[in-house]
Amino acid sequence: EQFDFGIVGLGVMGRNLLLNMADNGFAVAGLDLDETKAKSLEKEAASGHQVKGFIVAEDFVKSLKKPKAIMVLVPAGKPVDAVISSIRPFLSANDIVVDGGNSYFPDTDRRFSELAKDHIHFFGMGISGGEKGARFGPSMMPGGDEKAYERLRPVFEAIAAKVDGEPCVTYLGKGSAGNYVKMVHNGIEYGIMQLIAETYDVMKRGLGIGDERIQEIFETWNTTELSSFLVEITATLLKKKDKSTGQQLVTLVSDRARSKGTGKWTSQNAMDLQAPVPVIDMAVLMRDISKYKEERVAAAKLLPWEAEGEEDVAIESLKDALYFAIITTYAQGMVQLKLASDEYKYGLNLEEVAKIWRGGCIIRAACLEDFRQAYRRDSALANLLLDEKIAEDLVSRQGAAREVIKVAVDKGVPVPALMAALAYFDAYRSETLATNVIQAQRDYFGAHQFERIDKEGLFHVQWDEVTG
Ligand code: 6PG
To answer: How far apart are CA 99 and CA 5, in angstroms?
Structure first.
């Protein structure tokens, strides 16, 4: 019993987190059924660091100090249950099991109750930042048993990314709050990635801007209000050339996009909560459309569109449109978190969520500080669009979004996420919507009743008998 902390699953994330913990002075044990992964671990650790790899669950668990703290970092779904079953016989009351993967949140609730029977504390903690984040400072989103979190807080605060000295980790809320927040983080991630790709497409196919110039534009944008991890890596990856052909590497990457499910779960659950997240929906949908490659190739011939004439859009407008759409994406995700917090009793504090997303994670961006301030001004803010400062940012950029969409439509370049961002904005700022027509239709064919704006109560009329 000598190790402070144990990690199961020594893939890139698990291994890097473990080395990060060791850097911070913790004695850490790792478990992986793959012997090469377990054994190579000790070689990778810096000298003087206390690190050991195990291949047998019992030996691994027994090597940990009591009460034991174990983090599981294996693919979501069955592997998590398999790991829990393999270590459970060696755990006792007060031990802590943390699931650091992208688990589906209802699974976290189920595991929480199962382990609680043996007084084992379980919590789900979303971890963002990819390989480098894990190694040098991720953003972590823990939820579940608060007392258990408090015990592990020193470890997590030590390894987390820091922004102005503040660690990008904090206890978020009860039950599956941590996995839920990470799921929505990923939904927003999908949305922003899609918006960046659309902007690239408008530049390339819509405006015929050359590859090098596009790269420079993204690089410049990263020094503006658009400054963010995703804009930064886009600028970096657009620079890279394929070794053998000398071509820009990104142009050789297949356009069939894959996904592991977190974006889809965000959209699916948003529908259940009646939280409109159209940018995220479009991002999920575009990855799906991308898979129909053969059909798209055939359709390209059968369904042509020849754009007439040259179009021009100021680069500044492209930037403003992208910023506008990114802000609405965060706003949509934050509303979903608010509704989920009410529905699942998470007790989320959105100011804290914005705070821990400012560094370490994939959606870290300069604008998160603005959101944090917005929630600081009003912790019950229903939607970021209702914050005066954010509203100003959007109002001044909406013209640019409209301009870019017009050009994209003229040129036949698909920009569904940008369109969804603007449609959301226009719908949200509409004092009256045309949904009165829908209510009338429902009553016409199904006697579903409707409310009136001039009288209290529910009404049904025989529409055929009403004079025209
Ligand atoms: C992160 C990422 C990471 C991963 C997701 C998304 O925050 O570090 O979100 O968790 O990239 O699994 O992956 P897909 O695009 O494959 O769904």
So the answer is: 13
Q: Is the pLDDT of residue 1 over 90?
A: no
Q: How far is the CA of 128 from the centre of ligand 1 (A)?
A: 8
186 Cα: distance to centroid of ligand 1 (angstroms): 6
Instruction: Work out which ligand 1 atom sits closest to the CA atom of 262.
Output: 17
Fold exhibited by the domain 435-465: 1.20.5
**431-440 confidence digits (pLDDT tens):** 999 999 999 9
Catalytic residue (one of 52, 68, 174, 189): 189
Say how far apart CA 426 and CA 276 lie, in whole Å: 13
The CATH-assigned architecture of domain 182-428 is: Orthogonal Bundle (1.10)
**Is 182 among the catalytic positions?**
yes
189 part of the active site: yes
The interface predicted TM-score (ipTM) is 0.97
CA of 178 to the centre of ligand 1 (A): 15
The pTM of this model reads 0.97
Superfamily assignment of 5-175 in CATH? NAD(P)-binding Rossmann-like Domain (3.40.50.720)
Model confidence pLDDT, tens digit, residues 299-354: 999 999 998 878 889 999 999 999 999 999 999 999 999 999 999 999 999 999 99
**Token pair for residue 29?**
């044990």
Query: Long-range CB contacts (< 8 A, 24+ apart) of 103-106?
Result: 103/76, 103/77, 103/179, 104/76, 104/77, 104/179, 104/183, 104/261, 104/265, 105/176, 105/179, 105/180, 105/183, 105/265, 105/269, 106/176
Nearest residue by C-alpha to atom 4 in ligand 1: 130
Ordered by start, the domain boundaries in the chain are 5-175, 182-428, 435-465
